[in-house]
Amino acid sequence: MVSRKSEILDQLIDIIDARKNSDADASYTAKLLAKGPAHIGRKLNEESVEALLAAAQNNPAELAQEAADVVFHLLVLLAALDVSPDEVWDILAKRQGVSGLAEKASRQQSKQIEVSKGD
């Protein structure tokens, strides 16, 4: 059964994908995509800071608003770089059932192996 939450995300992803071929003057999303990943990244950073400020101010309603902006801008950035959200979901699925500390340690170990291979 597909949840309402995943339907909303799927619809948003579809809209963002459709905006890739839209006129930048007709859509905020198309305008972001036209400006490129660096600009989108700055917007994502801005929205992330606003979310952190809302959390620091213990303002759940504002945090929810800013979190929606963070999710939106992250999805736009993924689209700009042709990274499928399915790739992200697959990584998250692989991490389920693995303790966060163990998963982080395995990533650090992989990075150390890559560095030593470069020597």
Rg result: 17 Å
Helix content: over 70%
Q: What composes the largest sheet?
A: none
Low-confidence stretches: none
The DSSP helix count reads 6
Number of strands: 0
Overall pLDDT: 90
CATH architecture label name of the largest domain: Orthogonal Bundle
Strand composition percent: under 5%
Overall, the morphology is globular
CATH topology of the largest domain: Helix Hairpins
CATH C-level class of the largest domain is Mainly Alpha
Distance between the termini: 50 Å
What's the CATH H-level superfamily name of the largest domain? MazG-like
**Overall SS class:** mainly alpha
Number of separate structural domains: 2
Sequence of secondary-structure elements: HHHHHH
Organism: alpha proteobacterium IMCC14465
Subcellular location: Cytoplasm
Keywords: Amino-acid biosynthesis, ATP-binding, Cytoplasm, Histidine biosynthesis, Hydrolase, Nucleotide-binding
Pathway: Amino-acid biosynthesis; L-histidine biosynthesis; L-histidine from 5-phospho-alpha-D-ribose 1-diphosphate: step 2/9
Topology summary:
Elements: H1 4-19, H2 28-35, H3 37-56, H4 60-80, H5 85-95, H6 100-118
Subcellular location: Cytoplasm
Organism: alpha proteobacterium IMCC14465
EC number: 3.6.1.31
Task: Summarize the structure in words.
With 119 residues, the protein is mostly helical. It contains six helices and no strands. The chain folds into two domains: 1-83, Helix Hairpins, CATH 1.10.287.1080; 84-119. It has helices spanning 4-19, 28-35, 37-56, 60-80, 85-95, 100-118.
